[in-house]
């Protein structure tokens, strides 16, 4: 069988050979046929165009002789690489050493159990019924929602039923759906923690809501201030404030549940890294205190990999239909096959194994970070290490965040300062600090990333020598 590939070519009238030759040259020159694109077998293209096979073979041979195509006898014909000089494009400068990163919120992608995920995908596809392969339930597949209800109740104490769960692409999508549902119900103002992702604040604002910052102290967000902020909802990271790293104090959990009950407000609980605690103190989900007033949102990105692209919301019954309506209007929904694979991954306990494996890795990394800071960076302090994938490294008062970030960039290290997480126009009260994510580097690069961090902080210090203490042996 000749290789039949569809190929769109604008053939002019006249001699078929000449016309095909010109059409192929034009398609290659203007980039429609990129280098390495495989062309159909001569016999197949000839049949599609209604011309003779020999004409096509002659054109292929001619263009190969001119360097437009490469042909391998018995294998096929491809569009050739013709160098970049002719196109005028300049090659990008190449860094001598690859970039490394210590960015908050970026999970490891190297510890992921690819084999287990492949098994789950394979099993999900083989087991899928004909109905499973059709248009899915807009809230998500029943299999995944059932698996999540059991998992979240067992590991996070979430009060969840299959039919209170909506599956989404990621946290930000679910946040957007909830915010648009609230806006439709008349909400105008939503509180957020003083420090957090700007992209999440923009999602809230894009739903037509005003974002109102709440300060963060050593007990988490100062939630009692909500009393006088006139907001309809608040978005929080109670298990491990992002990026400051403190958990929300238990009395604040209770206060919030009662405030929401009293005022009818909604708490949006972002449980992005709730599974990763390193001490024995488990901090269950806030949602369990007030399931009717809390929209709990979790993500698969930290316990698996972001490329899976799935998250979930456990929603109060009164909010769920409105969120599904927003899902309908958005026209987007996750892939059902991906959901079925995650359901399988959960019920076969690969998800639990993945969390435990990552926890062990992160536990070692945070210990190493604490050790390096203690030994090499006097004057710096690491806090927020008891959970999650990131912590706060507070800089000495005379070392500006910006200077450290510049030094890091020069060394090929991607870092983020606490300042970049602060709400615009409302600078936070915390001293200059770095939000250090210890999950990002590949295992072999972690020590190098820490060494670059030490160098960057030392070089940014006006009294650099004061920071540089020789390592004790
Ligand atoms: C604070 C916070 N919330 C939520 C998320 C989850 O986002 P996603 O589901 O898009 O991976 C992240 C990821 O970085 C995060 O840092």
From TrEMBL:
<protein>
    <submittedName>
        <fullName>GntR family transcriptional regulator/MocR family aminotransferase</fullName>
    </submittedName>
</protein>
<dbReference type="GO" id="GO:0008483">
    <property type="term" value="F:transaminase activity"/>
</dbReference>
<dbReference type="InterPro" id="IPR036390">
    <property type="entry name" value="WH_DNA-bd_sf"/>
</dbReference>
<dbReference type="InterPro" id="IPR004839">
    <property type="entry name" value="Aminotransferase_I/II_large"/>
</dbReference>
<dbReference type="InterPro" id="IPR015421">
    <property type="entry name" value="PyrdxlP-dep_Trfase_major"/>
</dbReference>
<keyword id="KW-0032">Aminotransferase</keyword>
<dbReference type="GO" id="GO:0003677">
    <property type="term" value="F:DNA binding"/>
</dbReference>
<keyword id="KW-0804">Transcription</keyword>
<dbReference type="InterPro" id="IPR036388">
    <property type="entry name" value="WH-like_DNA-bd_sf"/>
</dbReference>
<keyword id="KW-0808">Transferase</keyword>
<keyword id="KW-0663">Pyridoxal phosphate</keyword>
<keyword id="KW-0238">DNA-binding</keyword>
<dbReference type="InterPro" id="IPR015424">
    <property type="entry name" value="PyrdxlP-dep_Trfase"/>
</dbReference>
<dbReference type="GO" id="GO:0003700">
    <property type="term" value="F:DNA-binding transcription factor activity"/>
</dbReference>
<keyword id="KW-0805">Transcription regulation</keyword>
<comment type="similarity">
    <text>In the C-terminal section; belongs to the class-I pyridoxal-phosphate-dependent aminotransferase family.</text>
</comment>
<dbReference type="GO" id="GO:0030170">
    <property type="term" value="F:pyridoxal phosphate binding"/>
</dbReference>
<feature type="domain" description="HTH gntR-type">
    <location>
        <begin position="14"/>
        <end position="82"/>
    </location>
</feature>
<dbReference type="Pfam" id="PF00392">
    <property type="entry name" value="GntR"/>
</dbReference>
<dbReference type="Pfam" id="PF00155">
    <property type="entry name" value="Aminotran_1_2"/>
</dbReference>
<dbReference type="InterPro" id="IPR000524">
    <property type="entry name" value="Tscrpt_reg_HTH_GntR"/>
</dbReference>
<dbReference type="InterPro" id="IPR051446">
    <property type="entry name" value="HTH_trans_reg/aminotransferase"/>
</dbReference>
